[in-house]
Amino acid sequence: MTIANEAVDVARAASLEGLEGIAHGFLGRRGGVSEGEVAGLNVGYGSGDDHAKIDANRARVVEAVLPGGRLVTLYQVHSADCVTLSDPVWSDAERPHADALVTNRPGVLLGILTADCAPVLFADHEAGVVGAAHAGWKGAFAGVTESTVQAMEALGARRERIAAAIGPCIARRSYEVDEAFFRRFLEQDEGNAVFFGAGRECHHQFDLESYVAARLAASGLRRIEALGLDTYSAPERYFSYRRATHRKEANYGRQISVIGLT
Fold it and tell me: Which tens digit of pLDDT belongs to each residue from 197-224?
């Protein structure tokens, strides 16, 4: 698999009104220096990869999206917690335990790591406020996107102006869940049945992307774009925790989605 020598792969929500002029991108695994099972642009310190290679990959991310900017990430824990970035900017060793972050500071690149979960990037161009959320099923179910919108509003954003883009994540055709998972969502709202398709006996196929999009719309957002990119079925382009598990691989990489103000 030739990944390390390729150009950095950046997908953008270019057609979404509200993100024009905002530095952002959903990056995959192409264009990095990591090798082996995490070959490519692996940015996850928890992957067991060489930290020097991860640092080099993170530098490539910044150069591709916001040259001269400072990348800021979290210690993600599948929560609904959102933090606001102000002064001082924390170091990698001091990363808060949370799953979303917002800022109105220029020159800072907010980063969310994923390997099947849904990354969501937010922007209110008029207010000069951006946000990023890690929306796995647990965080989305608990309200991480709602927490992000509320934190942006505290900085002066207005939800009717906020644009949100959902990046590469595991697609319904690739995401089998059991009956208990299905019932948990129905207990929250019987209308959630629409996000599940038929699977093998006592199993269902879950549409994480559509569920996240519906949560955003229910929060009052009017401009939402889902990129429709499946991490599981594109091994040359994206890391996938579930794919690595099914292949019995010892490790898996993490890709990153970023947004910042110039």
Answer: 999 999 999 999 999 999 999 999 999 9
Let me know: does 139 contact 95? Beta carbons within 8 Å.
Answer: no
* pTM listed for this prediction: 0.96
Strands 223-226 and 163-166: parallel
Angstrom distance (rounded) from CA 156 to CA 142: 24
- Report residue 82 as tokens: 């959102």
Ordered by where they begin, the domains of the chain are: 10-171+207-260 (3.60.140.10)
Long-range CB contacts (< 8 A, 24+ apart) of 241-250?
241/115, 241/116, 242/116, 242/170, 242/174, 242/175, 243/174, 244/37, 244/115, 249/37, 250/37
Q: Which residues contact 57 (CB under 8 A, 6 or more apart)?
A: 32, 33, 34, 41, 42, 43
Give the up-direction half-sphere exposure of residue 232: CA atoms within 13 A in the CB hemisphere. Answer: 16
Rg of the chain in Å (alpha carbons): 17
What is the helix (H) or strand (E) element at residue 62, kind and residue range? helix 51-65
Cβ neighbour number for residue 228 with a 10 Å cutoff: 11
Cα separations (Å) of 43 from 10, 12, 89, 93, 156? 14, 19, 19, 15, 31
- Lookup: tokens for 116: 């099947």
The pLDDT tens digits of the residues spanning 177-189 come to: 999 999 999 999 9
